[in-house]
């Protein structure tokens, strides 16, 4: 038994899937959920994802030995502020946010004496769906979870969080926080911006109806991430603003160069870029 | 029986799938293939996609009543130049290129008296795979095929090409050529540029290895089209250059505005764009 009482604040796709995986592995005695939407919380109980819930964080974290903050990044600070005064002295706290610098800053400001037992984490898993209804216990299997411990992080807390994620079938990797935010800006945050920006642009075009009518499979795959939760992505943009703006500017320059090459029918430049991209992309297996 | 002798020039994913679908429907007596890669042509015979082949276009189009040009856009002009002097007088000619303005110009320059029996066409189907090995008879089922007839197009030729595609299970739509090139620049050509440009940029970053290691499912879907045939896409860029450059410039401006909104933490602008994109994207079913 890893935990006696696991508290999941935010029982959505990630929080719900984590609870399911840990229950399946018989890793905790009791799972307490916390959230704002009663229908989602009732559904979570009905599905057996959590044992019970409270809409009050103060109530929910009572006697918890592990607290998982699975809330949007913009809500992280206020959640920490609320729970800090009432957290048990030995409780371990972790989160699942897609940006880690901002979360560690929040922890520094608001978690007080619990700071060293806070382990910032980010499971590289998910989909454009959300809510406990979309949760599955296999979500993290063979996926990577990045932890970004600091020199102040309690070793035992770090090991507990690592063990928790390994129990879900994930591979856990430690990473420097700045490095995490750079890599994620490149592989996740920038692509989401491109997909949102493209679909928004096309939706504003006069030929909107035909555009969507004649879109093929490639377009569907390419724009799938534009169906992701706008509120969540708004928060990610602001939480990882600096790295994301750097990445957007670099991409703007790259696109400008490609546009120029096409304008000038510069076959060599076009071919080099396309071949290089294809070679890199083919290294993935689908 | 639609055709006595169907000649497919370019027995790849599209040409091969068309041949398969027409054979399955018993729509032609004989299918003659033409191409440059002997291994691909032999494979096509072995798979029963074509009856026989020639590597010489002049030989291949002999006595054909339907000729399908399924060659890269950059090769279209030279293919027309080669076959024009030897095409049977009543042969119908069509193509499957992703840009239509350039192909109609090629036809005007090189097809001479056969020009009115040339029907420009574009099946909105395919994948990032290529070669006859990837061909399947169901590729066009419930997909759209756009034809861009001109005032000079022979009515019977148009009807024959329409019937051919309907036989494969596709829905055939007529469209103005300029309109086709605009809509396709938006829904297909621009997204491919974004995917190629992104993967090329990331592949040049110092953290390249980690970037691809920590990429999640969303990134895979988003960049799948960057595995498309670089040569084919080089040709599409140049064939639809004007529309594509317009679209790239509009997107550059859109991206600039989003970057500015993120830089300024302009929540309202960010939220509006994301919600609008999600709403438009959700209209698709996956």
TrEMBL record, chains A, B:
Pathway: Amino-acid biosynthesis; L-tyrosine biosynthesis; (4-hydroxyphenyl)pyruvate from prephenate (NAD(+) route): step 1/1. Its EC number is 1.3.1.12. It catalyses: prephenate + NAD(+) = 3-(4-hydroxyphenyl)pyruvate + CO2 + NADH. Pfam families: PDH_C, PDH_N. Residues 4-286 form the Prephenate/arogenate dehydrogenase domain. PROSITE patterns: PDH_ADH. One of its GO terms (biological process) is tyrosine biosynthetic process. InterPro entries: 6-PGluconate_DH-like_C_sf, NAD(P)-bd_dom_sf, PDH_C, PDH_N, Preph/Arog_dehydrog, Prephen_DH. It comes from the Bacteria. This is prephenate dehydrogenase. It comes from Candidatus Venteria ishoeyi.
């Amino acid at each position: 038994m890893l935990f006696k009482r696991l508290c999941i604040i935010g029982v959505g796709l990630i929080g719900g899937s984590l609870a399911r995986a840990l229950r399946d592995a018989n890793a905790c005695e009791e799972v307490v959920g916390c959230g704002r939407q009663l229908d989602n919380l009732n559904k979570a109980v009905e599905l057996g994802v959590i044992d019970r819930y409270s809409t009050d964080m103060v109530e929910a974290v009572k006697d918890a030995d592990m607290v998982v903050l699975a809330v949007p990044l913009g809500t992280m600070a206020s959640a920490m502020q609320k729970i800090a005064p009432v957290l048990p002295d030995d409780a371990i706290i972790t989160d699942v946010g897609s940006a880690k610098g901002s979360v560690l800053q929040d922890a520094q400001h608001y978690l007080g004496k619990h700071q060293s037992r806070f382990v910032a984490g980010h499971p590289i898993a998910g989909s454009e769906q959300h809510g406990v209804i979309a949760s599955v216990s296999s979500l993290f299997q063979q996926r990577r979870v990045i932890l970004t411990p600091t020199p102040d992080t309690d070793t035992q807390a770090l090991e507990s969080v690592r063990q928790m994620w390994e129990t879900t079938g994930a591979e856990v990797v430690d990473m420097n926080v700045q490095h995490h935010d750079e890599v994620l800006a490149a592989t996740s945050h920038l692509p989401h911006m491109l997909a949102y920006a493209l679909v928004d642009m096309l939706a504003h075009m006069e030929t909107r109806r035909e555009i969507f009518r004649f879109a093929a499979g490639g377009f569907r795959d390419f724009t799938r991430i534009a169906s992701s939760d706008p509120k969540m992505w708004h928060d990610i943009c602001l939480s990882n603003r600096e790295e994301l703006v750097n990445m957007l500017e670099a991409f703007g320059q790259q696109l400008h160069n490609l546009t120029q090459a096409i304008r000038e029918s510069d076959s060599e430049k076009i071919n080099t870029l396309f071949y290089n991209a294809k070679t890199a992309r083919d290294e993935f297996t689908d």
